[in-house]
Design brief:
- With about 850 residues, the chain is mainly alpha-helical.
- The protein is built from 32 helices and ten strands.
- Helix content is about 55%, strand content about 5%.
- It has a three-stranded antiparallel sheet with strand order 5-7-6. The protein has a three-stranded antiparallel sheet with strand order 8-10-9. A two-stranded antiparallel ribbon has the order 1-2.
- Strand 3 and strand 4 form a beta hairpin.
- It is elongated, with a radius of gyration of 49 Å.
Amino acid sequence: MTADTKWNARRRRAIQSVFQSDISQPTPHSTPSLRFPDQGQPFGGPVALTTPQKGGADTQLLFASPGDNTHAEQQTRFDRSWHVVTSRIALPNSVTVEDSFGSLPNSQDVNDGAFRDALLDVLDPDTRLPLATHTEDLLTWHAQQVRWHYVSHVLPLLAICDSYPDQEEVLLGSIRTLEAAQRQYVYGISLILRAMKEEDAKRAFMKFRRDLDAIVGNSMSNALMDALKSVLGHLINTVLGVSTIGHISKHGKRALISTDKIEKARKKLHQVVESSSGVGLAGERFQILFAELLDQTMIAYIRETFSGVWEPNDELKMRTRMPNHNKVQPKCISDLQDWVENQYARLAVEVTSRLSTELDVSWASVTKWKEIAIGRLAALRIDELFDIVIGWPGSEGGIDDLRYAVTTPQRRLQLTDAFSSTLQKRLLHTGRSTLDILRTYIAMIRTFHKLDHSRVLLDRVAYSLQIYLCSREDTVRIIVTGLLASKDEVNTEARKTKLVELVELLLQDSDRYRNEQQDEEWDDLDWVPAPVDAGSNYRRRKFEDVIGTLISALGSPEVFIKEFQSIIGERLLSEQSGFDQEVGVLDLLKKRFGESSLQACDVMIKDIQDSSRLDGVIHRGAVNHPEKVDRDWTIHARILSRLYWPEIGEERFHLPSDITEMQKMYETIFERLKPSRKIKWLNHLGQATVELELEDRTILERVHTYEAAVINAFSEENSSSWTFDDLWMKLEMDEDLLTTALEFWGKKHVLRRMPDNTYVVIERLSDAEQPSHQAAQISNATAVDMAPSTPRKAKPGISEKEKEKRQVYWQFIVGMLTNSSPTMPLGQISMMMKMLIADGFPWSNEELQEFLGEKIADGELEIVGGKYKLVKK
């Protein structure tokens, strides 16, 4: 309160320095005042002049009369008239009643002829009293006393109003105080203006009001401005349908304000504006505040009403075939323009018409407001664009709004800059899987094609995404796998792991792509010129061409074709019975890339088809030589053309002798049929059917060749147990393959690892039950290299700190195998962990291998071809 008092004192001094507040007394010093008569003068009597008499010291009182024509007589008459007038219109020296500043004089007392004559003398002394030498301007005197009274008495009362706790009380108290003061001020000026000509009186009153409003407007405190902002803001929001608190209902929809509440707020707003204007608060600062509040209300209304409202416009869909359909207003835009014209502009007219200014709301202003509102809606849609892309096609209405509103190069640049920034924050980081990024990219292609057929905007925002996709090793594989998915997988759980959307797009886009190549621009009835911000190599496309855009993001078609060949090769070598899906996709891709680009894939498919026939011929040839072939000869092979198939690694190991004999016989017959060719066996890619007869059960499994070779070693005579090193020396098999095979048979409860690192056959399932500590040893041994050092074990008594550290390491490994590469060898995982973990990675390769073995036992990881990969769930 003390600080506020000091501030008001400084404010009064500032006003006094600008406006002269030291005014003359109600009468000049030459004539005593009726209110303060000199000693010996009668109270309220005429002023006497003394003149010395000849021959005596006494003085004689002489009274001026209307007929006197001397300088002294006219000066006396002016002084008396000045005294009569100023004493009647003088303001009180103190504040006795806050609401009235005292009572106004009786009108009968001021309409008498003596006061009127005195007023005429004071207002026109040059005509009525030309010999009076000391005169004053009554209007100036009144203005000065108003300033003095306002600074001395009104401002302290306004400071008291500023301390009220409620904002509305602050405003209403200030208005009542100013109204009471202005009744006194206006009363005084109105008495003066009665004796003036109509035009002069009008000009004088306008000047008085203008000066008074300037004083009041420039002395408004911060508290009063805050109160005015609060009250006006609440009323404007209510009138224009914006809820300041709780505007979203429980059902997620905007809560509408009742008509009665709006009308009550409108009437109250009119009263506040009229009252503020009447006391001088509606000056330049008020007008700026009102404009700011209107602008803020427009922003709030747009965000509150149209945020997340992206439903497709059915009417717009029906009219898209009309010429210039881009100029057809979407529903959100038409609703917004209707609000601006019938609500926003109406309120502006109602307020400005009640201000004592020359402000006028023209139709040009309304048009400008509509343009601003559309720009604000465009800014909202730009902020929402990423969510609109994610929600496609259910968010088509949001794109319609953007297509209508974003038409200038500046707004198009704003859109692409904002969207590119959002992409970096919300999509292009290691926390997002490649599948999610590709799905978002597909939605971007379709969304931006709807927004801008020229593809200029898409090319701007997609560059960083394309670069990021190229850094992901699994990008091409996910795209190819999605293309090779079947249509039956579109609405199944396969969506979680495959880009199944590409199947339908491939069928849809193939015919479109072919038709577009046949079209000519001069024959296009829907042709439009290129955008002004299009590049020199711009080429218009009629449809989004999702697959073509995805493939072009990979850098060159050769990258895609190479990966396609690799995946096609894997599928052709699988146990799959038919390859109709692969052949169909290959035919569709030929339309896009040409026959020559995919010639190797044709050869691969032909190899598989020819292999089936050739294998039958070889088997018939073997039947014709029973003396050389065992009666259970069941070996089959797929014969591949070495030059056309992708590079396939080779893992050598010893096969059972009977299998080796079958292979030799197969080679002999093949070389007889194909003299110029030889066979090179890729044993690690083969499959075998294994039947195991144990004491209490029989197991029949379809397994990899190296898994069959491992379990076959345990079937030899006196070979029911093996150490890891002995098996490795006997089979000469890669350590990772051998570990994987032992792990496989361990899960099948066929083998188990003993405490001395020896593997034995489990003849009876009851023998598989082990004490908890032994079970832990067996579980941890599945992925452990048989090193002489004792491996680390995940004991139950491990500290909480160590558990947290191991969990952090596991999250890093999951992230690497998800986002960097789906498969990694042990050495690469160790190297990347040392690079990524800021505090350093303290484990050796053996300790890391043991930890990964635990995850394999838990079903989180698996080893394929010596590399670790996450188990698909």
